[in-house]
Amino acid sequence: MADNRTNNSNNSNSKTGSSKAGSGRYSAEASKLLNKWGAAYDKNSNNDPNNKSKNSAPSANKAAGKNKKVLTKEQFIRRKKIKRFLKRNKFRLLAYVTGLILICAIIVTVVSKVSSRTASASIIDKVNEYDVSLKTNLGVESYLLSPSENARPLNPLKQVKRIVLHYTSQSGKSAIDIRNQYEDYANTGSLTHDSCHFIIGLSGEIIQAIPTDECALASGVANIDSISITMCNELPSGEPTDSTYSSLVRLVTELCNHYNLGIQDVVRHYDIDGSSVCPRYFVINDVPWQMFLQDIQNGLTSNEKN
Questions:
Q1: CA distance 10 to 4
Q2: Closest by alpha carbon to 272, among 207, 208, 228, 213?
Q3: Where are the domains of the chain?
Q4: Of the candidates 304, 127, 287, 301, which has an alpha carbon nearest to the alpha carbon of residue 212?
Q5: How distant, in Å, are the alpha carbons of 47, 49, 50, 57, 59 from that of 63?
Q6: Alpha carbon distances (Å) from 160 to 66, 133, 166
Q7: Residue 42 pLDDT grade (very low, low, confident, very high; cuts 50, 70, 90)
Q8: Closest CA relative to residue 176, chosen from 218, 212, 139, 206
C-alpha cells in the first residue's frame, strides 16, 4: 500500500511539472504573439487617415512653422518699444486725436459761414439788367432787402404771368418806411411774411425791394408767377395821390411791355383770394379801377404805335 501511494504521488508530481512546463511554454508564445500584434496595431493606427489626433498636431505645427514670420532682433526690439509707447501714452494719443477732430470741425464751420456770408453779400447787391434799365428809364431806386424767410426767401421767379397791385393800409407812411418795415420782419423775429417788388411813395418815388427775378411774399398763391406793386396813401380810403397814380401807370405799362402782358393780366390782390380788400380804393370803387386799366391800355397802344 505504501508503494502504491508513493507511485501515485510521483505520478501526480510528474503531471504537475509537465503542466507547469506546458503552461510556461504557452505563456511565452502568447507574449510573443501579443507583442507582434501590438506592434502591427500601432503601425496601422499611425498610417490610418481617420486617426486625426496623432496626425493633425504635426501637420498644424508644420503649417504654423511655415506661416510664422521670424523677426530679427532689431525688429523685435522696435516692436516692443512701440507697444510700450502705445501702452504708456494711449490717453495722450486719444486726446490728440480728439483735439484734431474738433479743430477740423471748427475749420469747416468757419469756412462754411464765411462762404455763406460772401454768397449772401453778392445776392444782396445783385441787380439784373432789366432792373438796371428800370432805374435808367423810370428812376427806380434799388434798396434790396436782406435775404430772410420773412421778406426775401430768394425763391427764383421763373415766369411772370401777371402784375398784382396792393396798398399799404398805413396812411401817411413813405415808400422807404414800408421798405424798412419789410426788413424789420426778419430782424425782430416777427411771424409776418410780407414784401413787394416795388413800392410807390406819396411823391411818386419808386423803390425796388425785391429783384424782378425773385419771388416777393405779398400775393399768396400768385407769388410764384407775379410782380407785386404796393402804393402808399395819405388817407384811410387808400386813394393814391396824383404823383403816386402817375408813377403806377408808368411802371405797370413798362412791366406789361417787358413781359408781354395785357390789361387782363393786371389784377388786384382782391382778385387773387377774393377776401382781401386790397388795394382798398380800387376794390371799393370799380370806376377808378376801370379808368386805371384804360390808362394802361392807352399806354400799351401808344408804345405799339411808336
A1: 10
A2: 228
A3: 70-125, 129-305
A4: 127
A5: 20, 18, 20, 10, 6
A6: 80, 17, 17
A7: low
A8: 206
pLDDT for 43 beyond 90: no
pTM score of the predicted model: 0.61
3.30.70.120, 3.40.50.150, 3.40.80.10, 3.30.70.20: which CATH number matches 129-305? 3.40.80.10
Position with higher pLDDT, 2 vs 192: 192
pLDDT tens profile 122-166:
555 556 899 999 999 999 999 999 999 999 999 999 999 999 999
| Residue 215 three-state SS | coil
Contacts of 250 (CB under 8 A, 6+ apart): 138, 299
225 φ, ψ (degrees, to nearest 5): -145, 30
Instruction: Give whole-number Cα distances, 217 to 163, 192, 225, 239, 258, in Å.
Output: 13, 10, 11, 23, 22
At 180-235, the pLDDT tens digits run 999 998 787 778 899 999 999 999 999 999 999 999 999 999 999 999 999 999 99
- The grid coordinates of residue 181 equal 418795415
